[in-house]
Amino acid sequence: MKQSLKYIVVFIMSISAKASFILLPMDETTQQNHLKAYGITYWCLNKDYKASWLLNYRGGSFLLPDADEIRKECKIRGVSFEILSDSEQVSILDEISSPSQNMESVILEKAPKIAVYTPKGKQPWDDAVTLVLTYAEIPFTPIYDEEVLSDQLLLYDWLHLHHEDFTGQYGKFYAAYKNTPWYIEQKKDAEALAVKLGYAKVSQEKGAVAKKIRDFVIGGGFMFAMCSATDSFDISLTADGIDICEAMFDGDASEPNYQSKLNYGNSFAFKDFILERRPEQYEFSDIDMTTKRRITPDKDYFTLMEYSAKWDPIPSMLCQNHTQLVKGFMGQTTSFDSALIKSNVLIMGACELNGEARYIHGEKGKGMFTFFGGHDPEDYQHQVGDPPTVLDLHPNSPGYRLILNNVLFPAAKKKKLKT
């Protein structure tokens, strides 16, 4: 009888200790591939598995149900995972829910539908987001002006813009590349597309695209922009209906005194900026700090801000990382002059040495946007024609993690921002 009772107790204990959850740890020492861990989480959501994002718990770990196919997928993709019993999962959630801990568990509800604004034929290494989405095996749909202007943004939850120019000045590449075949061909293609879509000038067509994107965000969409898409987008909205392009860009002179006619109320993030009038300057305005910053590469870092995970889960999600100190990197738009950022926009990452903002976030209507300065987090000074970054060499990149935070963010069950 005693022997039978012993077996029964052991059996009951084995059931209670049965693995029920998978933890994808995201701390610095445990996770061997942070970037692909986001892809696993997205894959689970796409298959209708429940998932939770454990903010500030071991670097922003992910909690998934235990299933053989999830274990198998983690092994295939090289993602570190830990098996948890019911009691271990309850213990972790109890720790997270404690008022003394700056942690929170956020439910991820559905895999967001992702669109990447990119011209046909663009190389994937021209865009860090396209690069990391491909590496993490997160599906996305490339779209461009025709799709945007025909209201196809309504099909998506999340839109990415990268090294783009919404002002119609062809990226301000004129001085260095005006005689190169690729510049001449791109200008010709852009002009042909504008005419096809019913616009006399590329600047007018790009302005219409910017306003469609604006409406997408106001209606509840989420927009993430990097590099020159950040400031050129805001400049386009601010200069709506004003000709700021010189003759080599659109065939006629710019409008007299256009600086005084800008409407800063139209912009998402920036205010009181001065446009760069000289067409030979590889710069749009004084928003960007590239030519103003005085910092050497070895000291080029920015710090992520810390938020209350329980009260401010949105910026907390966007700043999840295994380090608060992130290596800086350059781009056409490297960083933002903090003095030119609107007061209702959060500065989530900044370099204290020169007062620049690197990573900012705000609300517009029912939607939200995040701007991230720089071109490629693991290519310090990306040049035209440089080889692509090999992400197998950077599977734990903190800068690329910030991009993927934004990719997963729309999947979260939202709580109202308190900050």
Task: State the main characteristics.
single chain; 419 residues; alpha+beta; Alpha-Beta Plaits; Rossmann fold; 2 domains; 5-stranded antiparallel beta sheet; 13 helices; 15 strands; 17% strand; transmembrane; Asparagine synthetase B; membrane; transmembrane helix
Straight-line N-to-C gap: 63 Å
Unreliable runs, pLDDT <50, ≥5 residues?
4-17
| Tally of contiguous helical segments | 13
Question: According to CATH, what is the class of the largest domain?
Answer: Alpha Beta
- Helix fraction, binned, reads 25-40%
Q: What is the arithmetic mean of pLDDT?
A: 91
Structure classification:
alpha+beta
CATH architecture label of the largest domain: 3-Layer(aba) Sandwich
Organism: Flavobacterium gyeonganense
Keywords: Membrane, Transmembrane, Transmembrane helix
Transmembrane segments: 7-26
Protein name: Asparagine synthetase B
Summarize the structure.
The chain is α+β, with helices and mostly antiparallel strands.
Can you describe what's shown?
Strands 6, 7, 8, 9, 10, 11, 12, 13, 14 and 15 form a 10-stranded mixed sheet that branches. A 5-stranded antiparallel sheet has the order 4-1-3-2-5, sandwiched between helices. With 419 residues, it is α+β, with helices and mostly antiparallel strands. Helix 2 runs parallel beside helix 13 and helix 8 crosses helix 9. About 3% of the residues have low confidence. The protein contains 13 helices and 15 strands. Helices cover 32% and strands 17% of the residues. This is Asparagine synthetase B. Keywords: Membrane, Transmembrane, Transmembrane helix.
